[in-house]
Description:
The structure is a single chain. The chain is an alpha/beta fold. The chain has helices at residues 7-15, 122-125, 168-176, 215-225, 240-252, 272-279, 312-330, 384-387; strands at 23-27, 40-41, 51-52, 56-59, 73-81, 95-99, 111-114, 133-136, 146-147, 158-160, 181-185, 189-194, 199-200, 211-212, 229-232, 257-261, 280-286, 289-290, 294-300, 303-308, 341-346, 350-351, 356-366, 369-374, 391-395, 401-402, 407-412. It binds adenosine monophosphate (AMP) and magnesium ion.
Amino acid sequence: MANLLNVDDALRAILDRIQALPAETIPTTQGLKRVLAEAITAETDLPPFASSSMDGYAVRYSDAAAAHADQPVQLTVIEDIPAGRVAAYPVGPMQAARIMTGAPLPDGADAVIPVEETDDEWLADGGAAPPEKVSIYRAARPGENVRPIGEDVHHGQMILQAGTVLRPQDIGMLISLGRAEILVIRQPRVVILSTGDELVDVGEPLGPGKIYNSNSYVLEGLITMLGGIAIRLPTARDTLDDVRRCLAEALAQQPDLIVSSAGVSVGVHDVVRTVVEELGHVELWRVNLRPGKPLAFGQVQQIPFFGLPGNPVSAMVTFDVFVRPTLLQMSGQPAKSTPPMTAAVVGEALRSDGRRSYLRVKLRDENGQLVAYLTGTQSSGALLSMVLADGLLIVPEGMTHVPAGTKLPVRVL
Ligand code: AMP
Ligand code: MG
């Protein structure tokens, strides 16, 4: 194992060569899941004016200070203020204005009495026009049922940091602040190549010795879920010419990253590496992990290139360990932003070969403790082991015997 590269060292070497993509301006309404490239500071107060938080009557609290159900205080109603309209008159002593939720509080008023605490029957009779007088049944505290200006956000407040992946509530906040456009990191364009004479595209009949090309679609899904733009090319045959043609097609897509699966190993028909080296530079690394030992990384005309193993589980694990942080770093997020992790004790004794192993496990809660069980065969070609998995149990380098009950980290899927 002397010449196997440590996983963390390999990842560090890769990330040293990856730059964040430039920013672009987009409509805020299209910003979901995009990565902010600017810090957002509020340029206004929210709410922008003091408003009522209830349907009722805006009053001067001191007028209603003595109000009680047995001894109501009667006020003169001077106007009706629906949401979206500004009051025409200030509220004077012994006056009230009917007001709806979200309407601006009129000058002079400093509290809102909910309609239920008055003799107004609008809830029953529809209340097209306000009554001339209203009886208040309850005392008000100053500021009661009033949303003060800037209660939510004050002018100048820092709201979102650069690097934030925008969620629906973030979009809502930007729009509330009146931001029609935002600066975000450009989405990485990732071309997916797959090679193999055995591969058939889904929907086509399978001849003898053939299998369906599943990796392309798995990679497309993984890239899309990380916010990238995945561009899948048709499968290349295992010939120099076909792989050359495919790589030219890949470069024509102006990608930020090229990810290929299969054909980078040391088999006689593994021609991808040869072709990539004609136009760029590849290093084939034997990395100290299982599954996924052979990993190619390099550049083709300045574009980073990953050659992942062809076995479906190896392709997924190496994507998670190496390509995922690469895409995060490209899109302006901390590459270190760890995937969801937990810890679990192993439910059965396990063996490992001393490489860092990513075992596919199901997690069960047993008496408040998370226990990990293997999802059947752990062959690097057994995609069902991923389908059934809740997580990848990480057995560290050098640990060959894992007794039942050992606590280990789990990458939650
Ligand atoms: P290779 O890296 O070309 O030696 O391929 C290793 C294994 O992965 C072989 O069993 C291939 O048939 C399988 N494989 C390669 N590419 C794909 C793919 N796109 N989808 C599913 N399996 C694949
Ligand atoms: Mg092959």
